[in-house]
Amino acid sequence: AQRVTQPEKLLSVFKGAPVELKCNYSYSGSPELFWYVQYSRQRLQLLLRHISRESIKGFTADLNKGETSFHLKKPFAQEEDSAMYYCALRRTSGSRLTFGEGTQLTVNP
Amino acid sequence: DTGVSQDPRHKITKRGQNVTFRCDPISEHNRLYWYRQTLGQGPEFLTYFQNEAQLEKSRLLSDRFSAERPKGSFSTLEIQRTEQGDSAMYLCASSYRDTYNEQFFGPGTRLTVL
Q: Most buried of the four, A75, A79, B2, B44, by CB within 10 Å?
């Protein structure tokens, strides 16, 4: 069975500071990893996926298979980054997503 | 097409009543997923369809829950004999069978069972 763990329920940083949201997973195969974001009063939306290896809104995430981690990072946080972030895993394309419990990020002015 | 839509957005019911939710996916999306989210938790998978076929159901989906997608377009999720523990946000997502199969989520239906 697959499992996703986000150890921090709440994370607070100041504007311009670096931010790292942690995600660890357990799965015996080669999963696909994602970060989803939910801004206040908006629906859940995809932020980035590990296979794309892209930077979205200044965020990056690297899949570390040795540590089974997929931490989300941004060098300079902005107030508009304040949101709930969910790490998610899926076994194969098209299959269900398994989500972590989420981290509420607050970026203070 | 403005994305995945769900109806109703909010539902308050009394314990023991039946409720039905509807999800309209993005046009031409052949996969449709249902998730449930309780306070302080991430979404949990319930079931998914490819076209009209229900391909997987979670063990969370007790026999009081049933989902259908009769024509491979919209889907309904019915909960019979609701319990207070069914109170949650019910999310629907859809995806198109391309390389990424990105799941697009609806706004959810918030169910409160009194």
A: B44
Contact A35, A47 (CB under 8 A): yes
Distance from CA of A12 to the nearest CA of B (A): 17
- Rounded Cα–Cα distance for residues B100 and B8 (Å): 29
A55 touches chain B (CB under 8 A): no
Contacts of A6 in chain B (CB under 8 A): 42
Q: Which amino acid is at B81?
A: R
Whether the CB of A95 is below 8 Å from some CB of chain B: the reply is: yes
Tell me the pLDDT tens digit for each residue of B11-27.
Answer: 999 999 999 999 999 99
Of the CA atoms within 13 Å of residue B19, those in its CB half-sphere come to: 24
The pLDDT tens digits for B50-64 are 999 999 999 878 899
